[in-house]
Design goal:
The chain has 701 residues and is an alpha/beta fold. The chain has 27 helices and 16 strands. The strands form 3 sheets. The chain has an 8-stranded parallel sheet with strand order 3-10-9-8-7-6-5-4. It starts with a helix and ends with a helix. The N terminus is likely disordered.
């Protein structure tokens, strides 16, 4: 490793000379095109990716001197990587009913899954019973109203040996009491419970925009739960830090890192005030990230996080080794998943999962290809689980420590992401910390801007989604979005009303006293809503939530509009391609045009080519299409455009005339518009916006 990092002065001089010669040769080949413009790629994080990396790029990158298992743990928390412990196969189950969840998890545990992940629905996390007005039952997860639901969901699961992970919302008390009560009723030794049952008030606040208690009260509860768990369930992590809410909102890697670090630091600061030590807080903490599609950036992101977290903990007086005790969980993102051509999601999650494994995560959820619809099946879950198996058993990523270590590119990228994230973290701290930044709306604006950039890149096809904004298959049937069964929701509410016990009496005292009373009440049938009331405070502070995005949604809306138009009228919206002259003259732009319109569900009519503009115009008018696209070359357009546009609009006055291509000369663009061209399609066009306008024009949208 050292030979890859340091060089003697003569060797360094030789390398510099070789690089200068290489640069000169490349610039000669570019023939005047700027090197920076042609060969340097700028990422959303502001990193300038170079076309070539050498050992010279690692000058000043200190972390490369550390081995795996050594601080700052960029190369992983274990000196032997995954040989000591493979990452957990922490697959989520898309079920809202406890019995359905149990059936799925028991089947999955028999065929490769090694932990249980419970994602409570919005109502359960907020401490709201299913029969309450406006309760979001089944939204985003499993409905858990009482200990009976936990008993049903976890029936036959060996809680003493299988880790269980549960995100409990802003205050863990209600769901923690139900889970612990269910475990006690089964006679499970609480000290053998493992996994995580985490409260994350900052993450919940950012996601929903409100809290069931004051933020100070939530910190008090988190401290109380962490202390209780340390004494009674020492293998259960209690502090959750979700960067997922920001990642699903479109945040870039630097923003995810900075916001996760800011949340972790805020928890250390607040829990330290409440009697906990930084080392203990770190050991109780589980960070959760989403995985984006940029492979090397994501590898570097996970490596950079350990460095940042180590630095922050040391600043609080903790030992550097404390950072290695925090867990890092990752799940594939929903941002880039699609309902159309959904099997491409398999490819997306595979590369994303690989980047997380190479980055050294502790647990991983790989989304089934149909998860974006809100429902999965045995097949899709099996395919997702198999990716874990392939990475570990076929590709042997569990046999090496830090496979990315020593790569000049990845080491430099890790360092750059860490530096930029630390700078952003410091900006957040200057505002008073993450809570203050959320109150001010700074975080929401930051994430929204990054998300808007991603949506803009997809809209203009700078970023491609196969099957959605590129290469659509108009004959496919997209995934259907899961809808909640109103009758089932009513039955669920009635069942809870029928079995709800008498509300427990109010309790005064500290969190421990309240939790003791909550455990007793939970064992007697108290509901999550009753336990939330027992927790005490009800004052809540509202902020603007961080909105999640899915960058395919805009194009999917266009496809759905075209499908609805076809059902209503008997045929898809049509576009006529006026292919002029021989194949080599019209084919490039005709193919481009067919793909351009196809992503919105338009059917292209392009059976023949034409020698004259008059013949093309006559055929366009007779085709029944509401849009005609002239497809030829820049050299022929000055002659073809006036003749074609005039003829086709005379034959069919309401038709929209589009030119495939955009002249570089603005005067020529204006001339073509004056001649009758209504729109131009080209590689820099906002594809989604233009197609939406055309669908509106024909009444399809």
């Amino acid at each position: 490793m050292a030979n890859n990092i340091t060089s003697s002065p003569p060797a360094a001089e030789a390398l510099a000379g070789n690089l200068a010669q290489w640069r000169a040769a490349v610039e000669a080949e570019l023939k005047g095109v700027p090197f920076e413009k042609k060969l340097v790629t700028r990422t959303p994080e502001g990193v300038a990716l170079q076309p070539l990396y050498t050992r010279a790029d690692l000058a000043g990158v200190a972390h490369v001197q550390a081995a795996p298992g050594q601080a700052p743990f960029v190369r992983g928390a274990s000196p032997v990587g995954y040989k000591a412990q493979t990452w957990q196969c922490a697959q989520e189950i898309a079920a809202s009913d406890a019995a359905d969840f149990n059936k799925a998890i028991l089947a999955d545990l028999m065929v490769g899954q090694d932990s249980v992940v419970i994602v409570p629905d919005a109502a359960s996390r907020a401490g709201i019973d299913p029969d309450a007005d406006g309760a979001k039952v089944g939204v985003g997860g499993l409905s858990l109203a009482d200990s009976r639901d936990f008993a049903t969901a976890l029936a036959s699961v060996e809680l003493a040996s299988i880790p269980v992970h549960l995100r409990a919302g802003a205050d863990a008390l209600p769901l923690a009491a139900l889970y612990i009560a269910a475990a006690q009723q089964r006679g499970v030794d609480l000290k053998k419970l493992s996994g995580s049952l985490t409260a994350d008030p900052l993450g919940e606040w950012a996601e929903s925009g409100s809290l069931p208690t004051s933020l100070a009260g939530a910190f008090d509860a988190l401290a109380g739960w962490t202390k209780w768990a340390a004494a009674n369930t020492p293998h259960l992590r209690t502090v959750g830090v979700s960067a997922q809410v920001y990642g699903e909102g479109g945040a870039n890697a630097v923003q995810e890192l900075a916001l996760a670090l800011a949340a972790g630091v805020e928890y250390v600061r607040e829990l330290s005030k409440r009697g906990l030590q930084a080392d203990a807080i770190a050991a109780a903490t589980r960070f959760s990230f989403v995985i984006g599609p940029q492979f090397f950036t994501e590898v570097a992101k996970f490596r950079a996080f350990r460095l940042l977290w180590t630095r922050a903990l040391v600043a609080f007086g903790a030992k550097a080794e404390a950072a290695a005790k925090s867990a890092v969980h990752a799940r594939t993102s929903n941002v880039n998943k699609t309902l159309f051509d959904a099997h491409v999601n398999m490819l997306r999650v595979t590369t994303e999962a690989l980047s997380a494994v190479v980055g050294g995560v502790d647990s991983l959820h790989i989304a089934p290809f149909d998860e974006v619809s809100g429902k999965t099946d045995d097949f899709s879950r099996r395919i997702a689980r198999n990716v874990h198996t392939l990475l570990a058993e076929e590709f042997h990523f569990n046999e090496t420590a830090d496979p990315a270590g020593g790569s000049w590119y990845i080491e430099k990228l890790t360092d750059e992401l860490a530096r930029k994230a630390w700078a952003l973290f410091q900006d957040i701290e200057k505002q008073g910390g993450l809570a203050a930044a959320l109150r001010a709306g700074t975080v929401q604006k930051l994430v929204a801007a990054a998300g808007a950039d991603k949506e803009d890149a997809v809209a203009k096809r700078r970023s491609g989604l196969i099957g959605t904004n590129l290469f659509p298959n108009l004959k496919e049937t997209p995934l259907a979005i899961r809808t909640l069964d109103a009758a089932a929701l009513t039955a669920r509410a009635n069942a809870i009303v029928a079995r709800r016990s008498t509300a427990p009496a109010a309790v005064t005292g500290d969190w421990s006293a309240k939790f003791k009373a909550a455990l007793a009440a939970a064992s007697k049938g108290a509901t999550v809503g009753q336990l939330a009331a027992l927790a005490g405070e009800t004052a809540a502070e509202k902020i603007a939530p961080v909105a999640s995005i899915r960058i395919a949604a805009g194009f999917e809306a266009l496809r759905n509009a075209s499908d609805a138009y076809a059902k209503r009228t008997g045929s898809r919206p049509k576009v006529f391609l006026a292919k002029m002259g021989p194949v080599k003259q019209h084919k490039p732009r005709a193919d481009f045009s067919a793909g351009f319109f196809g992503v919105a569900g338009f059917e292209s009519i392009a059976k023949q080519a034409f020698e004259t503009a008059a013949d093309a115009a006559k055929a366009a008018a007779a085709s029944g299409a509401s849009i005609a696209v002239l497809c030829s070359t820049d050299d022929t357009y000055p002659e073809l455009v006036p003749a074609f546009a005039a003829a086709v609009k005379q034959a069919k006055p309401g038709i929209t005339v589009v030119l495939a291509g955009l002249p570089a000369d603005k005067a020529q663009v204006d001339s073509f518009k004056a001649a009758g061209i209504d729109e131009f399609i080209h590689v820099r066009a906002n594809v989604r916006e233009l197609l939406a306008n055309l669908l509106k024009k024909i009444g399809a949208l």
